[in-house]
Amino acid sequence: MEGIESENQEGIGSVRAAISLYSERINGRKQEKLKTKAPLQENSPSKAGELHVAKIGIDRLNETRVSAEKEKACAEAELSTTKSMAKELARKIEEANSEARAQNSELNSVRKQGRSAKSLESDRQYEEVIRELEDVKKEVSRLKLDLASALEAKAKAEKEIEASRSKAMVYSKSVEELKEEIEEANEEHVLVEIARIEADRERREIEAKREAEADQFAKNLEAARKRIEDLKREINRTKELESKLAVTKSDVEVLQNEMELVRAMERKDKENGSQKGDLEGRSMLRSAQAELDAAKKELGAIKEEGFQFMASMDQIRKEMLRISKETERLKKLGKKADSHVQYLNSKLLKAKSKLESAAAAEERTKGIVSNLSSALQQLKNETEGEKQEKEMIDNETQNIRSENEKADMEISSIEERLQAAVKELEAAKASELVALKKLKIATEKAMKARASAVLKSSTLTISKSEYDYLSKRAAPAQAVADKKVAASRAWIEALKAGEKEMLMRAEHLEKQMREARAMEKQKLLEAERTSIDKRKMEEQVHETNWTEENEEEGEEGSTLPVGAAVALRKSLRNENRNRGGRRSKMRRVSASSAARIAQSPSFTIKKKRKVMPNLVKFLRDRRNEK
Where in the sequence does UniProt note compositional bias of the Acidic residues kind (predicted)? Predict the structure, then answer.
């Protein structure tokens, strides 16, 4: 029994050592946690919040990237339109130069013909041409401003791309830290598994020892029962012997009485002196003496057996006392082992619950890390694509700049040529004025001559050139005028269709912006709700962990005072609330900055309304009048 008790105590001590090791590995140095007011309890919720913020940031980066791509596409479309408009203006300027040359030739012919009405019309059209040239210059300056705004928007998009890259680097660093923490959690998980296996082994050993002790106790009880039955049989046998002894005592007393009678009879016989009586009495006395001796021997043997029986009864009483004490000790050991097994079972249940929570947290962290790694991979791919797109855009911008420089050079050369043409037109205008004066004098003379001739005759004579002009040029001029009117109407309809298309596009963009803002507001509300729910759950988890730790410390005998525990719990709650407020503020600030980024007005290059050049019309009219 003493060997069983020592083995039980050794098993209990090993299990306690394993449990203390397990609790130290799980709790992660409780003394340090109490000194620092449980900073490790806030790691898991803070990391969960950081993961949530990282997800929101990644979503916002994707949204900003999509908006930047849309703005970049719009800028490329606007740049292409500006290129086409610049080319169109260059072509129109070339046409204007050619028309100016034709105008010079026509001015020379008009100078020869000397028609004053046409000269006035040409002056008016000349002023319109100059006005159109000024409008063209303004349009070119506007296109330059639009190009500058497009370049600024491109620089802004590049800055946003750089910011997204920096954020991606920060998130990659946070993912690496999370991976390290997951590795530490895996190590703790392995330690927990080892402790659990050790505890299971100790539990099985304790159960085996308990079963062996129970078998030994049952054997001891069976042996005690057998000995009690034997003692009961001995007691019955002794009772029978006592009854026999009482019977023999009564027989001895009867024999003694008979001996007394015999002796009395002998005395009487002696007195009477009869010899027959002496012989009979002697024979009877001898037989009685023999019976008495035999009875005395039997009585002595019975007394010896009674003494032996009393000694055996004393031994049986001592053995019964020892057996009762042993049974009480075994019962106490059984109760103690049961309580210890219950304590171990409660510890194992707590360890299993912690292990399950750790496994669930590990699975969640693995899922989050896999999502973040895929998101980071996607961001890396997108950044590489954006780098390539940036290189392409840089090449395109360089080409556009070179083309713009070429267009500026061409425009400057065209302006110089236009100035030379204007000077030539001014000289031609001066010469035309002189010719017009001369023509006016000649026409006045001709009119006077015609008037005098009309007074003399009923017919009017005109020159051959006037007759040819009036007879041949009227129908083609009418056809050209009709064509010009149809072309101008088609041009106006095309402009109206373009304006409608631009309005529809602007309405569609506004609708998309409103939907994006509504979706962003909804996402922000959902993120705030989830953050509030997570904070509540984190506070509940902190409280449950704190209560469990206090219970464990109370069981191990290292509990704090009640006032200190209450103060520590209040300080932890205040710290959790302060941290939750700071997190919510950070989330609100980040959300508002993201909203400002998302709601920042995208750069748009307004499409200038194309001015219909009257220069071409004027020159075509002049060409048809030839």
Answer: 546-556
